[in-house]
Amino acid sequence: AQSVTQPDIHITVSEGASLELRCNYSYGATPYLFWYVQSPGQGLQLLLKYFSGDTLVQGIKGFEAEFKRSQSSFNLRKPSVHWSDAAEYFCAVGPGTASKLTFGTGTRLQVTL
Amino acid sequence: SAVISQKPSRDICQRGTSLTIQCQVDSQVTMMFWYRQQPGQSLTLIATANQGSEATYESGFVIDKFPISRPNLTFSTLTVSNMSPEDSSIYLCSALDRDGYTFGSGTRLTVV
């Protein structure tokens, strides 16, 4: 069965600092990987996704993620965090393009000024 | 990517009543899903809404409690039946198109 682990429940960074949110997955084949962001009281917005090809994926709002098969990881990064990035971030994995997603437990990002 | 309109955005309901949540997608999509997000928790899949047939429910969720309809490729409803305070959650619909999975803005349900 597929699973996703986000080891960090809560992260606090200063505005302007770099950010890395960790995501580890368990799946037998090449997974489809996603990062979503959820602001308070809002739905989920897709930041980026990995299906195949280049393992470094660029997303919206200056985010990127790198797929590392050897480490079963898909960590999300941003070189300089803005106060508006404060939100909940979810990593998700799916076995293909026609199946359900499994979500991690989320990482809550707090940005200090 | 597809755009999903979900309504209502929030509601406060009396226990024992039912609420129907609607999701309208701006394009035809192959698959639609319904998720529940309990307070401070991640998303849990309730069911996959199948067009023209019965929904496929995940373990722990049953049709009598969460009946789902999907009459066409752009629309689906989820009903939360005979509600109790434990049903207080955010309910989100999702659609799968060629760009991936898109989510509605969610329905925040409070049962009192």
Q: Alpha-carbon distance between the termini of chain A? A: 41 Å
Mean pLDDT of chain B: 93
Biggest sheet features of chain B: 7 strands, mixed
* Greatest interface by residues involved: A-B, 22 and 22 residues
Please, how many helices of chain B? 0
Radius of gyration from the alpha-carbon trace of chain B, in angstroms = 13 Å
Order of helices and strands of chain A: EEEEEEEEEEEE
Radius of gyration of chain A: 13 Å
Q: Work out the number of β strands of chain B.
A: 11
Arithmetic mean of pLDDT of chain A: 91
User: Which percent bin holds the helix content of chain B?
Assistant: under 10%
Q: Quick one: overall form of chain B?
A: globular
Return residue spans of chain B where pLDDT drops below 50 for at least 5 consecutive residues: none
Instruction: List low-confidence stretches of chain A.
Output: none
Provide the structure class of chain B. Answer: mainly beta
Q: What is the N-to-C succession of helices and strands of chain B? A: EEEEEEEEEEE
Content of β-strand of chain A:
over 45%
Give the key terms.
A: about 110 residues, 6-stranded mixed sheet, B: about 110 residues, 7-stranded mixed sheet, 4-stranded antiparallel sheet, 11 strands
Provide structural commentary.
The complex is a heterodimer of chains A (113) and B (112). Chain A is an all-beta fold and 113 residues long. In chain A, 0% of the residues lie in helices and 50% in strands. In chain A, strands 2, 5, 6, 10, 11 and 12 form a 6-stranded mixed β-sheet that branches. The radius of gyration of chain A is 13 Å and the shape is globular. The model of chain A has no long low-confidence stretch (mean pLDDT 91). Chain B has 112 residues and is an all-beta fold. Chain B has no helices and 11 strands. In chain B, 38% of the residues are buried. The mean pLDDT of chain B is 93. The interface between A and B is medium-sized, with 22 and 22 residues.
